[in-house]
Each structure stands twice: as structure tokens, then as C-alpha cells.
Amino acid sequence: LQQRNDRQRSEMIRRFEEEVKQDEEVSRKEERELINNNGGAGMKLLFQCVVRKVPQQFDGHKCLTNLKVGDVVNVLQEGVGPDNKYNLCSIERSGASLSSTTATKEETQISL
């Protein structure tokens, strides 16, 4: 009985991880299309905000990454996501502030 339960639990975890992976891939594809089609620049900037606090558990696959207190983010759309509780934001980063794995030259990139 215990072995059967362990197998079922392992199978459920494996399926859940696959679904999360697929969702992340779809999200990345949508974000790439949004960036490539508009460059983020085609969307109207509503307002800018200064980051005052970065939560410790700020690690969702649709979150802006490498945010620091004092960063300025552009709010492009309000009331998106589950229960309309989120905002679509972008941040412009210069090549100097990008990680060494993505920055090959001095350039500006937009993250959504």
C-alpha cells in the first residue's frame, strides 16, 4: 500500500512539474512575442514607480527579475492577471546592469 501511494505521489508530482514547465514555456513565448512585436515601446506608458521593497518570495515566472530597491519600473497596463490584481510592468536596463551572461555590449534591454 505504501509503495503504491509513493508511486502515485511521484506520478502526480511529475505531472504537476510538467504542467508548470509547459505554462512557463507558453508564458515565455507570449512575452517574447510581446517584446518582439512592440519592443515594449509600442505600449503606452501609464506611469512610473520606484521600487521601495522587494519581497523575499518574489520569484514567480512572470515577475521582473533582479529588481533592487530604487529601480524605476514603467507600468504599461493595470489590472491584469488573476483577479486583476497585478500590473504589467517593464524595466529598461543598460548593458552595464545586465548579468555578464546576457550583456555582451553596452545596450538597453526591456524586460516585461
Structural summary, described in words:
Helices cover 33% and strands 23% of the residues. It has 112 residues and is α+β, with helices and mostly antiparallel strands. A 4-stranded antiparallel sheet has the order 1-2-3-4, with no helix packed on it. It contains 1 helix and 4 strands; from the N terminus they run αββββ.
Main attributes of the structure:
single chain, 112 residues, alpha+beta, four-stranded antiparallel sheet, 1 helix, 4 strands, 23% strand
The secondary-structure element order is HEEEE
How far the N terminus sits from the C terminus, by CA atoms, comes to 48 Å
Approximate shape = elongated
Oligomer type? single chain
Strand order of the largest sheet: 1-2-3-4
By secondary-structure content and strand pairing, the structural class works out as: alpha+beta
List the helices and strands and how they pair.
Layout lengths: L1 H37 L8 E4 L21 E9 L5 E9 L13 E4 L1
Briefly summarize what is shown.
The protein is of the alpha+beta class and 112 residues long.
